[in-house]
Amino acid sequence: MEHLHDADYVVVKALEDGVTIIGLTRGKDTRFHHTEKLDAGEVMIAQFTEHTSAIKVRGKAEIWTKHGLVTSGS
Question: Which segments of the chain have a pLDDT < 70?
Fold first, then answer.
């Protein structure tokens, strides 16, 4: 079992109003389990866990991971 302090983190900084962050579940059937909306300048720190296998970002945002920076919606 994964320990939360060992899980990867993702930092999402909204570059415009209305950026949506969607958490997707692990398991046989992937489903949405959590949604957040950010406005320009807001930052969310998210973590991959035993329940979250993917994070989808809609809108223009900077996404920081241990692998580097990605800009969505450009």
Answer: 1-7
Query: Nearest-5° angle of CA 15, CA 21, CA 26?
Result: 150
- E strands present in the chain: 9-14, 19-25, 32-38, 43-47, 52-58, 61-65, 68-72
- CB-based contact 60:16 (threshold 8 Å): yes
Six token digits for residue 55: 């994070």
Query: Which amino acid is located at 17 in the chain?
Result: D
CB–CB of 55/33 below 8 Å?
A: no
Tell me the pTM. Answer: 0.81
The dotted CATH code for 4-67 is: 2.60.40.50
